[in-house]
Amino acid sequence: MKDISSDVLGSWSRAVTTCDGCWQIRGYFSQNCTFIIKNYLTGGLLYYGHLSMRGADKICDEELWQGTAKAAEGHLAQVLWSKAKDEDLKVEVNWQDADSSSALGFRYSFPNELESRVMLCGGHVGRAHGKKLQELQSKSTVTTQFIALHKEQFPNIQSVKCCCAGKKHRFVSKKDKPACGCIGPGFIQSAKRNHYCALVQADNDPEKYRATMLTLGKYHSRDIHSWEGGLCSFHPLVKCSCKKCDVDLNGFCPEMKCSGEAYHSAHVLKCDFHGLLYEIECANRAKDAEKVIDPNLGKGHSNLPESSFSVLTKFRAKDINLHQTHYQASTNLGLLQSCMTWCYKVKGPEYHWILELYSRMGLPIIDGIQEM
């Protein structure tokens, strides 16, 4: 990164990073935590840190973590970003999930939101979208706080009623599709797919993502695909009916050979109440368009740190809380292994971290050890 010209995106002066934290054992009471920062464009590991609650002073001179497991991630984020700041790293874009503790740690060292932008992982946004719809699925009324929050933009929220209020949902042949037209499991799966398509089709344009989400919420979910002044631009109004026409990646037929048939949404929200709740949810996602779609990079993700963490399970037990030294040694070996893709690109296919490690430690190198 330091060898790249300072005006090039991805250099030390215009870094694109991604970060995340993990615990040895998933859950709030795990006693070991790791946080890493990676180069988003190359996958190279830039910074890492560990915190442990267990260990012996006579073995390790590092202090044990006295706080909670959840607070450990935010603390490590603050420490590592502060170190990056001290080394003159200038972050232009940082991709992460919507975890507030790590975002606060980043902002502590990079407070200027115009110079250093925090972008949200598209996959995490999509999962949050699905979880919110699962929450709305069970609702037949909303709270007064919810009404007060949205009544200015959506005045109908004050009077709209669920068609199934006080009753159980009626399902058609498949249990995932309520006959009443409320939000059901099938609609939620379809909405998650539509959100992913909105991310992909937006390319590098946040406004396109915003427009697609608003259209999905207000029209597409109600099986309305053309209206005065607009139409659904992300699918054809007439689709092939013979199954023989050539279709492009977006479902459009450049040269339709048959008469075709009108496009209809697979899962239609006929319930005015749930239709409005979905419209509000899509409008909330549209507000974060600039945090989801980058003008230079498009949609992004935080898969690089998470893929590193998936390697760690091969190097340390997941059902036993290790002591500090054991945890750090095992985790560091896993982090070395997780960087092999970057090492192959930079140092060539003959390189292996274990050979360099053994050489530095003065240990004998056994034939074939890198294949073990």
UniProtKB/TrEMBL annotation:
Recorded superkingdom: Eukaryota
Listed PANTHER family: PROLINE RICH, LACRIMAL 1, PROLINE-RICH, LACRIMAL 1
Protein's recorded name: Uncharacterized protein
Species of origin: Paramuricea clavata
Upper lineage: Eukaryota, Metazoa, Cnidaria, Anthozoa, Octocorallia
